[in-house]
Amino acid sequence: MTAEALAAPKPVKWWFILVQGILSIVVGLLFLIEPVRTSKTAVGLLGVYWLILGILDLFSLFRDRTAWGWKLFTGIIGILAGFLIVSNFLGPNAGTLDRLLTTAMLGVTFAIVIGTLGIIYGIVMLIAAFRGAGIGAGILGALTIVFGIIILTNPIPTALGLPFVIGIWLLVGGIFLIIAAFRARSA
């Protein structure tokens, strides 16, 4: 096999992109039409995903010891978070209220993380602006800090809005994927 054959990625089939776009639109519509039920389902799937990923991170330590501390940390956190979510969704005492509270707590946690990252990103942009990145970076950094503070001071309304934001994001992404699929087909 030549180096060019190894380096060149295989092109993705146009129909695969089309299927991704259609699925994205369907899930986006579900988030907009049934935000609570879809959010609960998504959180349950996320819990299973985190649990499996955490286990795989720990098993990868036997094969590759590079960055072992990070793999150990992410494996343990993934298993704990996944187990907590899965036990609230599939446990013997799991009821609708448990699932709803777990979904709400995860939404609030995401809002806190998003707000915190917004403030950190805004500070980095402000520093870059003072180092010569320009006034645009400074304005964007200040706005990002303001939005981060708004999100941190209002995590519950932010969490309630997340399903709608995700739904719109998936709809727009799905439309772009479908357009890209037809462009790839005609190319």
Question: What report would you give on this structure?
Answer:
89% of the residues lie in helices and 0% in strands. It contains 7 helices and no strands. It is globular, with a radius of gyration of 21 Å. The two termini are 27 Å apart.
Beta content comes to under 5%
Question: Can you tell me the overall shape?
Answer: globular
The rounded distance between the terminal residues' Cα atoms is 27 Å
How many domains in all? 1
Helix content: over 70%
Class based on secondary structure composition and strand pairing? mainly alpha
Using DSSP, what is the number of strands? 0
Q: How many DSSP helices?
A: 7
Cα Rg: 21 Å
Overall mean pLDDT score? Answer: 88
Order of helices and strands: HHHHHHH
* Biggest β-sheet strands, sense, barrel: none
In a nutshell, what does this entry contain?
This protein is mostly helical. Helices cover 89% and strands 0% of the residues.
Properties at a glance:
about 190 residues, mainly alpha, 7 helices, globular
SSE blueprint and pairings:
Layout: H1 3-7, H2 14-33, H3 35-63, H4 68-90, H5 96-133, H6 135-153, H7 155-186
